[in-house]
Amino acid sequence: MGSPGESWASSSRTRASMQGNRSRDTRPELALRRAVHRLGLRYRVASRPLPGIRRTADLVFTRVRVAVFLDGCFWHGCPLHHTVSKSNSVYWSEKVARNKARDQDTNRRLEEAGWVVLRIWEHEDPHAAAQRVQSVVVQQRARLDGSENRVESALRASNRPSVGGQRGGQTKQPAQDPPGQSWTTMESNRQAITPEPKPRGA
């Protein structure tokens, strides 16, 4: 470890290691993309699901709102493969802790906006991971399509003409007798007040 004024990446070995870490298009990412593409799914690469927030997902399915993150075992604190660095361990432990907190905040923001978040570790088999992605995308697509169909059905029902010619399911009610009177009562009253014809010659 260098002097207090030196950078934590001042050694040639550390600098070379950091320069070799690519931010995107890593080997695990490319393997996952190929596996997902072979399943017939299309997606955006390294895209921000929420334009106003600087959080980039590795695979983004915009229409069905599914965001896939491929997390590095070291950078994101994999419970199986994360190891504590012997050199500058305090810095690295704090860095990983910040990354994990950021991941949790990203999940929360996306889920509040109606997105489904899927996180995959870089050590996972890409074909198995791709099948997980496909399952989530298909389920989300079915759920959204079902909601859209219900809305469309309700709109069609509200605009469908009824038997009486009215929209919205309203039927034209037949005319009713005045309160307290029936047709027979009205007819008998009409006969009662009709004058009888006078006999001829009267």
How would you describe this protein?
The protein is of the alpha+beta class. The protein is built from five helices and four strands, in the order ααβββαβαα. Strand 2 and strand 3 form a beta hairpin. The chain is elongated, with a radius of gyration of 37 Å. The N terminus is likely disordered.
Describe how the helices and strands are arranged:
Elements (H helix, E strand, L loop, with lengths): L11 H8 L7 H12 L5 E4 L9 E5 L4 E6 L17 H24 L3 E6 L4 H34 L23 H11 L9
Parallel strand pairs: 3-4
Antiparallel strand pairs: 1-2, 2-3
Helix pairs in contact: 2-4
**Which class best fits the helix and strand makeup?**
alpha+beta
Radius of gyration: 37 Å
Shape: elongated
Which percent band covers the strand fraction? Answer: 5-15%
Give the N-terminus to C-terminus distance in angstroms: 141 Å
- Helix amount: 40-55%
Largest sheet: 4 strands, mixed
List the total number of helices. Answer: 5
Mean pLDDT: 78
- Strand arrangement within the widest β-sheet reads 1-2-3-4
Low-confidence stretches: 1-12, 181-194
Which oligomeric state applies?
single chain
Give the total of beta strands.
4
Order of helices and strands: HHEEEHEHH
Give descriptors for this structure.
single chain, alpha+beta, four-stranded mixed sheet, 4 strands, 44% helix, 10% strand, disordered N terminus
Summarize the structure.
This protein is 44% helix and 10% strand. By secondary structure, the chain is α+β, with helices and mostly antiparallel strands. Helix 2 crosses helix 4 (126-159).
